[in-house]
Amino acid sequence: MNELKNKTCEPCSDGLDPMPSGEINKLLELIPEWEVTTEDGISRLQRTFSFKDFKSAITFTNLVGELAEVEQHHPKLVTEWGKVTVIWWTHSVNGLHMNDFTMAGKTSKLKAD
Amino acid sequence: MNELKNKTCEPCSDGLDPMPSGEINKLLELIPEWEVTTEDGISRLQRTFSFKDFKSAITFTNLVGELAEVEQHHPKLVTEWGKVTVIWWTHSVNGLHMNDFTMAGKTSKLKAD
User: Of A6, A97, B8, B41, which is most buried by a Cβ count within 10 Å?
Assistant: First the structure.
């Protein structure tokens, strides 16, 4: 995961193709806690983080939100009592880009810190 | 909506029945921006609020989170770039309770303020 968490996001232009599945599977080995989900036909990286209560979940939501603002790459964050589900994908490629794996690695590091 | 936004949540005990649909429809008239959705067979109150960017969405997520902590009744909050979807239901009745309508009214007021 160290390879991912120290990267920064690169600018994405429209019209790029999403990452091929072979490359996705290879990168997933670096972040085994994450899974690929599909919603509206778009592949996404998803992980649910557990917390002791609602307040701790909101605190984590804010940490991920700050990271998103720094990198200018924004996830979907589902905050509930005791858990936060973080979902990364890249709008401009309608799927997964290297940036999403970078952000997943950085998100996991936020929980580990 | 004034009837709802000034109420406070009452304690819920397990084993209560969810609200009958006739009562739900009557209360929905007080908060017409909200809709009843069903997930995992459980009725919920849902509304999506729009914002100009991700930061404003996170700020609203925090406002709803603070309200939830005050009332000790906690929603599911889906935060994305430019929008927050707020979903209220009551675990102990496996459906909707008067408290959810109260919280929906209070949530709408947070956006209106």
Answer: A97
